[in-house]
C-alpha cells in the first residue's frame, strides 16, 4: 500500500504543477512531512525530484529559444557556490540531522511564506516594475550585481528548504528584468532551477545522506504523466482563482513551519 500512496502523492503534486505552474518543493516537501518523513529526507529527496521533473521543461524551452543564458549564468554563479557552501557547512558544523532540523524547518516556513506572497502580489510587483522608470534605470545599472546576490540567497535557501527555485525565482526575474518577456522569464527560471536543485540534491545525497531513492522513484512514476495531464487541465481553468487558493494554503503551512 505504501508504494501506491507515494505514487499518488507524486501524481497529486504533478497535477498541481501542471494546473497552476507552482509545485515542486512548495507542495511536495510539506506533503512528504505529512507522510512522516524526516525534514532532511523530505528536502533532500525533493531537490532531486525537482531537478528531474524540471529537466524536460528546460530542454523544451532551450529548443524554443526561450532561455536567457546570460541570466542563467549570473544566477548560477551565485546559487551554485552558495548551495555547495551551505551543504559543506551543514556537514561540518552538525554531527547529525537532528541538530539542524530547526534550521531546515524555519527556512522552509520562510520560503513558503515568501512564495505565497509572490503568488498573491505578483501582479502588483510586475506592474510597479513596468511603470516605474526610475526603478528601471536603477535595475539596468545594478542588475548584474543584484542578480548574482539574488542567486546566492536562492542557493542558500533552496538547499535548506527545497523551496524557491520556481515561483520565487521567477518573481525575482520579473522584478529585476521588467522588459524580459513572460515566456523567457519562465524558460530562464526553469533552466536555472535544474542545475541548482541537482547540485543541492547531490549535496544532500553525498554529504548528508538525505535522499530516499525508493521514495524518489515512486514520486516520479506518479508525477511525470500527471504534469502533462495537469497542463491540459490548467489551460481550461481560471488561474486567478487557483493561485490565490494555493497561496493561502502555502501561507498557512509557512506560518506553521516558521513559528510553531
* Computed Rg: 17 Å
Helical content (DSSP H or I, runs of 4+): over 70%
Q: Quick one: how many beta strands?
A: 0
Q: Write the H/E string, N to C.
A: HHHHHHHHHH
Low-confidence stretches: none
Mean pLDDT: 87
> Main sheet, how many strands, which sense, barrel?
none
Quick one: overall form? globular
Q: Structural class of the helix and strand makeup?
A: mainly alpha
Domain tally: 1
What percentage of the residues does DSSP assign to strands (E)? under 5%
Total helices: the number is: 10
Distance between the termini: 31 Å
What is the fold's blueprint, element by element?
Layout: H1 2-20, H2 24-34, H3 39-64, H4 69-93, H5 101-131, H6 133-161, H7 167-176, H8 182-208, H9 213-234, H10 239-259
Kindly describe this structure:
This protein is mainly α. The protein has helices at residues 2-20, 24-34, 39-64, 69-93, 101-131, 133-161, 167-176, 182-208, 213-234, 239-259. The longest helix has 31 residues, at 101-131. The radius of gyration is 17 Å and the shape is globular.
Summarize the entry for a quick read.
The protein is mainly α.
Features of the shown structure:
single chain, about 260 residues, mainly alpha
Amino acid at each position: 500500500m505504501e508504494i501506491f500512496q507515494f505514487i499518488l502523492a507524486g501524481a497529486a503534486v504533478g497535477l498541481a504543477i501542471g494546473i497552476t505552474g507552482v509545485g515542486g518543493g512548495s507542495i511536495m516537501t510539506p506533503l512528504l512531512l505529512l507522510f512522516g518523513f524526516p525534514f532532511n529526507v523530505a528536502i533532500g529527496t525533493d531537490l532531486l525530484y525537482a531537478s528531474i521533473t524540471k529537466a524536460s521543461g528546460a530542454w523544451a524551452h532551450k529548443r524554443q529559444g526561450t532561455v536567457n543564458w546570460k541570466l542563467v549564468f549570473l544566477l548560477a554563479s551565485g546559487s551554485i557556490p552558495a548551495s555547495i557552501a551551505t551543504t559543506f557547512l551543514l556537514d561540518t558544523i552538525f554531527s547529525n540531522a537532528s541538530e539542524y532540523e530547526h534550521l531546515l524547518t524555519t527556512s522552509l516556513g520562510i520560503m513558503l511564506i515568501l512564495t505565497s506572497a509572490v503568488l498573491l502580489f505578483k501582479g502588483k510587483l510586475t506592474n510597479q516594475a513596468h511603470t516605474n522608470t526610475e526603478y528601471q534605470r536603477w535595475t539596468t545599472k545594478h542588475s548584474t550585481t543584484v542578480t548574482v546576490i539574488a542567486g546566492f540567497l536562492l542557493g542558500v535557501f533552496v538547499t535548506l528548504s527545497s523551496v524557491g527555485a520556481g515561483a520565487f525565482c521567477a518573481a525575482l526575474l520579473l522584478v529585476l528584468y521588467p522588459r524580459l518577456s513572460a515566456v523567457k522569464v519562465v524558460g530562464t527560471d526553469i533552466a536555472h532551477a535544474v542545475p541548482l536543485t541537482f547540485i543541492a540534491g547531490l549535496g544532500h545525497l553525498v554529504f548528508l545522506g538525505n535522499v530516499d531513492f525508493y521514495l524518489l522513484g515512486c514520486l516520479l512514476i506518479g508525477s511525470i504523466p500527471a504534469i502533462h495531464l495537469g497542463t491540459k487541465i490548467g489551460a481550461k481553468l481560471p488561474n486567478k482563482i487557483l493561485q490565490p487558493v494555493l497561496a493561502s494554503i502555502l501561507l498557512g503551512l509557512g506560518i506553521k513551519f516558521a513559528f510553531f
